[in-house]
Amino acid sequence: MSLEKELQQRSGSKCELCGNDENLSVYIVPDIKENALNTALYACNVCVEQMNDSEKIDANHWRCLNDSMWSEYDAVKIMAWRMLNRIEADWTQDLLGMMYMEEDVLELAKASGDGEDDENKLIHRDVNGVILEHGDSVVLIKDLKVKGSSMVAKQGTAVRNIRLDHENAEYIEGKVDGQQIVIITQYVKKT
Predict the structure, then answer these.
(1) What is the predicted pLDDT for the residue at 17?
(2) Are strands 158-159 and 152-153 parallel, antiparallel or unpaired?
(3) Contact yes or no for 108/78 (Cβ under 8 A)
(4) pTM above 0.85, yes or no
(5) Which of 63, 84, 93, 140 is most exposed, with minimal Cβ within 10 Å?
């Protein structure tokens, strides 16, 4: 039986991470030398795209890991652990704290470098020093003139689902009045 047929049978023809039943393919877990059934999983295009490109991660999509992290299959557990370490959201640490993996499986999961503290990692903080994360909501603490337009973002305006600038800890991005703008972190307060 081919690897794809075995994975289809094992997964019930659904993504082993999110449960989607469309646009499925075999995904070989990277950074592991052996290629066999225990290092492959059946995944949808959405999961594969986000596993391969951290810039495209949608934290809300990965709430499915609450269920799939308990899979009996090592490849699924490894990718669940890796994605929980890549997602910048408060809820991921709770799930990582609950997750159980055998020591040898955990070593395979760590082979990609996920979960290691990066001493050069940028930390975005609001005016009060509270750490900001991707997807947080903030409130403007003063009126801000938006460069390149006549718009003024008013004090007290809520900015939801912010994005962090990966090159500068002082900048975040968010939508104000339907317009995507860059905001300096010293002018926001986390809600």
Answers:
(1) 97
(2) unpaired
(3) yes
(4) no
(5) 93
Higher pLDDT, 182 or 36: 182
> Helix or strand or coil: residue 125?
strand
The answer to whether the CB of 163 falls within 8 A of the CB of 172 is yes
Average pLDDT over residues 120-132: 84
The pair of structure tokens assigned to 149 is: 């337009």
Residue 36 CA to its chain's centroid (Å): 26
CA distance 78 to 155: 44
- pLDDT of 130 > 80? The answer is yes
Give the tokens for residue 85.
């370490």
How far does CA 54 lie from the centroid of its chain?
7
Q: Which helix (H) or strand (E) holds 110?
A: helix 103-110
CB proximity list for 161: less than 8 A, separation 6 or greater: 135, 136, 137, 174, 175
